[in-house]
Amino acid sequence: MAGFGAWLRGLVGAKGMEPDPSSALSRVRAQPVGPASFADNNNDFALAMYGHLRQRAENLFFSPFSVRAALGMTQAGARGQTAAEMRETLRISSSDEVLHVAFAEIIERLKAAGGGQYELSVANSLWCQDGVPLQPDFLNLIARHYRGGMNVVDFRRGAEAARVRINHWVEDETRQRIQDLIPSGGLDAETCLVLANAVYFKGQWVLQFDRTDTRDEPFHVEGGGTVQVPLMYQHETVRYLKAAGYQAVDLAYRGGDLSMLVLLPDRKEGLWDLEKRVSARVLDECVTQMVTRGVELFLPRFTLTWGTVDLGAQLTALGMPLAFTRFHADFSGINGREPPHEESLFLSAAFHKAFVETNEEGTEAAAATALETLCTASFQAPRPPAVPVFRADHPFLFAIRDRKSGTILFLGRMADPTRER
User: Fold this and answer.
1) What is the pLDDT of residue 329?
2) CA distance linking residue 259 with residue 411, whole number of Å
3) Is this structure's pTM higher than 0.70?
4) What's residue 382's pLDDT?
5) Which residue segments constitute the domains of the chain, with CATH numbers given?
6) Roughly how many angstroms between the first and final C-alpha of the chain, as a whole number?
7) What is the structure's pLDDT at 385?
8) Distance of alpha carbon 382 from the chain centroid
9) Nearest one of 79, 150, 98 to 334, comparing CA atoms
10) Could you tell me which residues come within 8 angstroms of residue 228 by beta carbon, excluding any fewer than 6 positions away?
């Protein structure tokens, strides 16, 4: 059955990597941040993160929306150069307040939309060390815009118990699809705060596939060779584009607010080159230029769990090393302690895990992110020619997105449908 999405669990904790703070903005985008919509900024971040994660020819699936939301909550407490780096990395082109309001609005709209034809739940929470004071303004912002509830735990004397409790919260909010987000040993006595966000979506295709039309067919994997996969089939009228080097379809879920965008390279070994071309602008132009027409569509049935992965190195490379640097990170907006105070905070890990299942009925996807912080101590188509064939029997890129704003919620590559990890 279709469904998708659970989202972040952000943790603030303590023991991680220590990059050179002198390289502060050396890896940030060269171009300045200009006026852009929330979706533009979100998708720019999504593709930048994807670029750092796609280096190996294997399956990939994550929620850039979830990662950005968790980091957005954390950025609310950042100050000085730490805040500046995070603004660049997260592609915040307006005021911080506008970002938080935008997250609140899109979350509330997606939860309320769809006319009851899909299920979407969003939850946020804070997990704080007993006795550690947090700034009232920070708590008010998280409560107002992210509906984040406070949970007091004792990391110092029971880090493992706290880890299990947070993981159970994640599991409950994602309908058990994301389990063991924070690995054993992921928290310790130095952990001060965990910010957690979870989103779950379950929906069905507007145009479902008939299971009797699904056949085991060869799928050409990267590097050569084939594997046998269940290839679903339908001949329906969908939004479609034939562009230079690739085809794309946009498959709607019931309710009309969400869809899966699939980009299929023309060449069997063409995904790597296509990925290098794809940008937020290219995706936007792709969707804008689509026409509604009949298509013979073949799409593999697949299930994938990706993670748990620590995204700290990728976020550092994207331009926010200070946030992960002991004695230099400034999250004084969270607890009032400026570096190098022994109680100042820095990020030690950014755990992320995601799940997706696509079948004849629809899609189910879930994702969670945990940021651990430690204390330092409609278009009318022309008359079509022959019916195009969209046969996804080789690696492709796909995104689950909000159709109204264009915001990418999940993003991935399917390299081998027979591999569930």
Assistant:
1) 95
2) 12
3) yes
4) 42
5) 21-204+304-375 (3.30.497.10), 211-301+379-414 (2.30.39.10)
6) 19
7) 60
8) 36
9) 79
10) 216, 217, 218, 219, 418
Cβ-based neighbour number of residue 281 at 10 Å: 12
pLDDT of residue 377: 64
Give the position of tokens 């609005």: 105
20-29 as b/e, with b when 16 or more CB fall inside 10 Å?
Answer: ebeebeebbe
Low-confidence ranges of the chain (pLDDT < 50): 1-35, 378-384
- Burial degree of 174 (CB within 10 A; 0-12, 13-18, 19+): buried
Both tokens of 215, joined, read 């056949």
Residue with tokens 């979706």: 39
